[in-house]
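Q: Structure for this?
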Amino acid sequence: MNHFQPVALEHASRLVNHGPTVLVTSADGARRNVMAAAWSMPVEFTPPRIAVVIDKRTYTCELVAASGAFGVCLPGTALADLTYALGSTSGRTLDKFERYGIGASRGPVLGMPLLEAGCAAWLECRLIREPHAEDAYDTCFAEVVAAAADARIFAGGHWSFREDNADLQTIHHLGGGNFVRAGGTLRARQL
Amino acid sequence: MNHFQPVALEHASRLVNHGPTVLVTSADGARRNVMAAAWSMPVEFTPPRIAVVIDKRTYTCELVAASGAFGVCLPGTALADLTYALGSTSGRTLDKFERYGIGASRGPVLGMPLLEAGCAAWLECRLIREPHAEDAYDTCFAEVVAAAADARIFAGGHWSFREDNADLQTIHHLGGGNFVRAGGTLRARQL
């Protein structure tokens, strides 16, 4: 059963307020990709805007530049291994969705691929072109145009981290595959 | 006993890689301030650079613009209440260091006030002037010029979250005074 429910746009920035490591999804025509990103933050609540660092050498950067859009998905603890894997491989030479058996839905506004199984939430984002910030700092600013969350951990505009939703709790990358979460430290295994 | 040790600059971005809520310190002449900021991220490892959202209406923004520098301190769980308080009051009308009995040392390069007691780490930062990003997104880019961490939780370039250093573990603001940390959810009390 899928527990995802829409999140009001005025609450969207709260989804990344606490600094989770995220998965950045992208697509341009038939090309698509998903990568891990530890570096993101909100920059505004209303309208909801975020900043994400996307290395300009990545396939993701190429697709985002082409489509002007990307998705941000928040993996839960159960996806720590997958997250590390998605941050350690390039989508130029393989379709990571197929390689890792990742199912994706289509974003309601921009058609970005979005992960729900094992994730706590997602945000669909429209790139705000800022050539200097992109060039100098690999920093992409974007406006959130749609968001949703698993109602078992985020509902009514608020997070609720509890013992019974530990698998959905967000993960925060320390480096080298080591994550912290509410509840302890996870060590990612190689997939 | 103070356990702070210098952190090599090539490891400085790791201090904020996992999205902790931070305290931004500032000073210009005799004026000084400290505020909480949930929105920050690294943007580069070498040279170590970060981005922090500082609302342009704040006293901190005024001091940072004047001095071209700021500090970033990582409060541990024991400082959750203080962190929430520092994010809910303005330094224009009171000296928050005095009001809350906060001791501060002087940064080695830029002389910024830096908190160590109860904190896991600090970074001393030189503002990189980016008028457009500051104006449009309240986003301040900066280069880290010095960093240090409590060796009980960060040493040799790596974090180590353990049961015996729970008080130093970083906190991550969900909103409204609710934080998550490795180990559970903290609810800040009003000071």
